[in-house]
UDP-3-O-acylglucosamine N-acyltransferase (Gluconacetobacter sacchari), 1071 residues
Amino acid sequence: MEGQVDTALTGDGRFFQRSGPFSLEKLAECAGARIVGDEGSDPDKLYVGVAPLQSAGPQEVSFLDNRRYAPLLNQTRAGIVLLGQAFVDRLPKGTIGLICPAPYLAWARVAGLFHPPPAVAPGIHPTALVGVDAVIDSSAQIGPFVVIGAGVSVGAKTRIDSHVVIGDGVRIGAHCRIGTHASVSHTLMGDRVTLLAGVRIGQEGFGFAVGPEGFETVPQLGRVVLEDGVEVGANSTIDRGSSQDTVIGAGSRLDNLVQIGHNVRLGRCCIVVSQAGISGSTELGDFVTVAAQAGLIGHIRIGDKARIGAQCGVMSDVDAGADVIGSPAMPFREFFRNVAVLRRLAKKTPREGGGEA
Amino acid sequence: MEGQVDTALTGDGRFFQRSGPFSLEKLAECAGARIVGDEGSDPDKLYVGVAPLQSAGPQEVSFLDNRRYAPLLNQTRAGIVLLGQAFVDRLPKGTIGLICPAPYLAWARVAGLFHPPPAVAPGIHPTALVGVDAVIDSSAQIGPFVVIGAGVSVGAKTRIDSHVVIGDGVRIGAHCRIGTHASVSHTLMGDRVTLLAGVRIGQEGFGFAVGPEGFETVPQLGRVVLEDGVEVGANSTIDRGSSQDTVIGAGSRLDNLVQIGHNVRLGRCCIVVSQAGISGSTELGDFVTVAAQAGLIGHIRIGDKARIGAQCGVMSDVDAGADVIGSPAMPFREFFRNVAVLRRLAKKTPREGGGEA
Amino acid sequence: MEGQVDTALTGDGRFFQRSGPFSLEKLAECAGARIVGDEGSDPDKLYVGVAPLQSAGPQEVSFLDNRRYAPLLNQTRAGIVLLGQAFVDRLPKGTIGLICPAPYLAWARVAGLFHPPPAVAPGIHPTALVGVDAVIDSSAQIGPFVVIGAGVSVGAKTRIDSHVVIGDGVRIGAHCRIGTHASVSHTLMGDRVTLLAGVRIGQEGFGFAVGPEGFETVPQLGRVVLEDGVEVGANSTIDRGSSQDTVIGAGSRLDNLVQIGHNVRLGRCCIVVSQAGISGSTELGDFVTVAAQAGLIGHIRIGDKARIGAQCGVMSDVDAGADVIGSPAMPFREFFRNVAVLRRLAKKTPREGGGEA
C-alpha cells in the first residue's frame, strides 16, 4: 500500500491547519534570530512551511539542533535553516541561516506560526451528558459522548474531546485540553493542563492491608492536584492520594504509559519519560528528569534537578543535581566504570572447565 | 493556581461521602483495638474524620504503621492514633492511642467507617445498550453509553461505569465494580471483582506463527477467568488464553499498567505491582508478590509465597518462598553481594590508560 | 465460584464460533501434513475441535511444538496431534499423527478452520457519528458510539468496534479491525491492520523545548503510517512524527502496552513484545525482534534480524543479525559470561569486616 506515501510530508493538510506564507523578516522576528547569508536573495520572497533538513525545499524552513544531524546540512535544499552560531559555516549556498541560541525553541515557535493548533469550537455536543450544578464556561468545547459529573467546573477555552468521563466535583481550569477516552475523578486541575488520550487520573491507588481472610482495601481519600501547565501522555495513570494528595507540579510533563502512585509529589517542571513509574509517597523536587522505564520505590526523596537514567531502579534518596543510573541506582560515572571493569575481568577469566577465554 | 489548595485535606466532601461522627468506643470497636491514654478525656467526645499524622486535628483519627514516619508522632495534634504497642510511649499528651496488632488494617476499617464507598444506584442508564438475552440483576447499576453484548449476565449490586464495553457471553458476578472505559470479552468473572478504568480483559493474546508470507495469527480460543475478589488496576491488560484459560486466582490484586499474557495462571492472593509483566503460560502459586516493573518470561513456575523484586528479570522457575531480584533473577543476598563486590573491584582497578583510580 | 469452571475448555461456544466437523483428510490438507498412525482407524471418523494435549479427547486435534511439553504426548487422549517428525515415535497408540515441518503454523490453520473469526456485519450503528465527507465502504461495520471525523475513509470489510474515535482525515484500508475504545488520528493505515482495544495512535509526541518560562511545546507535524498487516496490542501507544512520519512496516506485530515514540521507523515483520519502548527517531530494519520490557534510546539504528532481549537497554546502534541483552546492551554470550564471572568473584571475595564468604 504505502509505496506512494511521501513519508516526509510535514504538516499534511489533511491533518494540520496551515497559516502563512511569511516573509524572512517575520520568521526572524518569530525565531528571535539573526539573519545570515541572505545577500542577493529576493526580499519579497515568502515561505510556506517547515520541513526537516532532508526534505525541505527552497520555500521551507528547517532547523539543526542535534549535532548528530549536522551532516545533513550540506545537502539541504531548505530556503531557511534555524541553527546555532557554531554551524553557520556549513550552510550551503543559497540557504539563509537564522542564527539563534536555542534553535529547537525557535523551531517550536516557527512551526507553530505555520501550523497553529486548531481553535476551540465553543459548545456542548448534543450527545454529551452534563451533571447537575456543573458549570461549563460558554467558550469551552465539550465533545460527543462526554460524561461530566455533578458539580464539575470547566474553565474558559478548555476543550474536552469525545468519550471523556469527568467524575463528580472535578475542577478543570481554563485553556485545558483533555484527549479522547480520558477519565478524570477526584481531581483539581489548574489552567493550560493537557491530558492525552486514554489517561486515567484520580482512580484509587494500590492500597490494601492483610486481613484474616485476604486483602482488605484501604479507602483512598486523597485527591490529585494537577498544577498549571501540566501535560500527561497517552494511557498514563495517576492515582489519587490515600490520605494526602498526589500532586504534579506546575509545568511538569509526563510521557505515555507513565505510572504515578498515590501521594507522589512532583515539583515544578519535572520530566517523566515513557513507561517510567514512581511508587507511592515518593517526592521529587523541581526540574527532576526521570528517563524512560526508570522505576522509583516508594517513600523516597529526589532532590531538585536530579537526573534519573533510563531503566534506573531507585531504591533510596537521590541528592539534588545528582545523575544516577543502573539498578540499583548509582552515579553515572560509577555505573559505566563498573560495566567496563566487569567486561575486562570477564575477558581475563578463563571459563570454568578450561577452553578458550 | 494551587497556592490556596490545602493538599492535606483528607476525604474532601466534593469527592467522598462522610459518615459519623463516632465515639471513641465505637472507633475502638471498629479497629479491634485497646484504648490507652484516655484518662481525663471527655467520654462524650465525638470524632469526625481521619487524617495523616501531620495534619490531623483533635477531632480526627490518624495512624502510624511505617516506622519511617514515627518522628511525626511527637508533633501530631490528632485526637486518636491507631498504632502498635511498640510506639505507645511516644504518644503526645492529649492524644489517645488505639493499640492494635495491625494498625494499617485497623486504619482501613476506620477510614471506611467515616467514608463508606458510594452506594450502588440500581438501574440501566437510558443511553446504555444491552444485547439480546442479557440478564442484568435489578439491583445492578449500568452507566451511560455502556455496551453489553448478547447473553451477558450481571450479578446483584454490581456497578458498571460509563463507556464500559462487555462482549457477548461474558459472565459477571455480584458486587463487582467495573471502571469507566474498561473492556471485557471472553471472560468469566466471580463476585466482588473490581476492574479500574481502562482495563483490557479478554482480548486475543500475542500469538502467531511464521508462514511463507509473514506472520499468521494463531486463533486464541481460551478465556479469562477472574475469580472472586480479584482487583485489576487502571489500563492493565489481561489476554485470554490461547487454548487453555488465563486465570487470576481469588483475592489477587494487580496494579496499574500490568501485562498478563495468554494462559498465565495466578494462584490465590497474588500481588502484581505496576508495570510488571508476566509472559504467556507462566504459572504462579498462591501469595506470590511480583514487584513493580518486574518481568517473567513464559512457561515457568513460581512457587507459593515467592517474592519477585522490582525490575527483576525472571528467566527460570522460582522456588516457593524464595526472594529474588536482579536481571537475571537471583536470591536477594546474592544480588546485593554482587553489587558490593563489583563496586569494590571497580574502586581497586586502575583505569585503562592509567591515571587516577 | 470457580470450582465448577472447566478451565481447559477450548473454543467455548459462548465466545467462539465453531465450524466442522472435519475428516482426517480435510485436516491433513489444511495442515499441509503427512498422516501417520492411522492404520485401522475409521476413515469416516469426524473431528469436532481443537484442544491442548492434556485435555484433548478422541474427537479433537492437538499439537506439539515446544519440546518442553513433549512429556504430555505420552498421556494424551487426542485423536490427532500435529507434530514434527522428531516426536513421531512418542505418539501413543490410537492417536494419529499429522507430521509437518511447522506444527505451530499448522495449528494456526487447523484451529482457524474449526473456529473462524466472526464475520463482519455491514452497516453503521445508529448511535455512531460520521463526519462530513467521510467515505465508509458499504461492507464495513461501524459499532455503537463510534465517532468518525471529517474526510475519513474506511475500506471494505473493515470492522470498527464500539467507542472507537477516528480523527479527521484518517485513512483506513480494507479488512482492518479496530478494537473498542481505540483512538486514531493523523494516520494512514493500509489493509489488514488490526488494532486491539485501547490503543492510542497518532497523538502528539513528547516534544518540547526549554523556554524562558518553562517548557514550550514543539508542534508535532508528522503522521503515523501503519502499513499492511500491522497488528498493535491493547493499550499500546504510537505517537505521530514530529516533522517526518512514524512508520510501522508491513506485517509487524506489537504486543500490549508498547510505546513507540515520534519518528520511529520499523521495517517489515518486526516483533515488539509487551511493555517494550522505542524512543524517538530510532530506526529498525526488517525482522527485528524486541523482547518484553526492552527499551531503546532515540536516534539509533537496529539492523535487520537483530534480536533485542527482554529488559535490554539499548544505547547505541545494533548490527544486523546481532543478539543483545543487558542494560547497557551487549552480546548474549558476553552478558551471560559477565553474570557467571561476577558470581564466581563474589563467592571468592571475603565480606568486608571478615566472616564467612
